[in-house]
Description:
By secondary structure, this protein is mainly alpha-helical. It has a single domain, classed as ABC transporter involved in vitamin B12 uptake, BtuC (Orthogonal Bundle). It has helices at residues 6-9, 11-41, 43-46, 49-74, 82-98, 103-128, 132-150, 180-198, 200-210, 212-217, 222-248, 259-269, 281-300, 305-330. α4 (49-74) packs parallel to α8 (180-198), α5 runs antiparallel to α6 (103-128) and α5 (82-98) packs across α11 (222-248). The longest helix is centred in the N-terminal third of the chain and has 31 residues, at 11-41.
Amino acid sequence: MTTVSSDSANPVSSRFGWSDLLTRLGPLIGLLFVLVLFSILEPQKFLRLNNFELILRQTAVVGTAALGMTLIIISGGIDLSVGSAIALHTVVIALLLRGGIPALGAATGGIIVAALCGCLIGLLITRLKLAPFIITLGMWGSLRGTAKGLADNSMVYPPGTFLNELLRPLSPDHIWLLTPGAWMMLLLAVLVAAMLRYTRFGRHIFAIGSNEQTARLCGINVEWTKLRIYMLAAALAGVAGLLQFSYLTMGDPTTATGMELDVIAAVVIGGASLSGGQGSILGSLVGALIMTIVSNGCTKMELDNWVQEIVTGGIIILAVTLDRLRHRRTV
Length: 331
């Protein structure tokens, strides 16, 4: 009597196991690849402690915004306005500081404004029943224009506060290894990951992204959940705006141009599916780190901006292609 191994008896299960493993390890493999690549191409400039510190400081902004984008993409949505929102938040914080508001109040005010922007986006999506792509594309221009109008088409220079220290380069004898802004990103990542894993709200986010109609039939208030998703994601973008303000030490209505592409790419590279229902906070942070390392490595190699833009665009296309291939295998 011929015996058949479990692997050969169920090849679909075996293939799924390898695909699932590749999905989980893919971001880490990509991170290792870009680290090795730039270490070989530009070892003298890239392999320096102060450069790795710079990479972590730059990742804090994209990584924090990617936390909120992860929630949106898992739910099957998209937000193209996050770069403009970050610019607006830097201006709001700078104007509040220049108006005499204490630093903590200005930071809180900027995050509240961000949450209100997210509330508006969520209401437009749920009430008008339009695609998030269309709504957030319109908000992309509106928020950028609002930032320029509030700043009177110029930089806003506020007085110095402790907010400027969040992403300041560390001194050689610093014991914390990471800047306060990087620690903020990691703390928020832990909280958001726990929310996704252990709360009803987190389970509803995955359910809506997997199948919105089924989620509705199961009794989930889809509209209310989407509204909360966009508000929370916008509040996290507000924190990213605070970190960007700390990095610049001023309000800049032109900053973060194109950052929405880096944020979306970071989430997709991290294993999230643009079709919804799949994604992780750890993967998004790894994806954000990959995007920052690529930008940093191209700068160290003294490549022109147009070359960096081509490389970034290529990474985005590759990430979306891999997402589509993953989705086809699971169908």
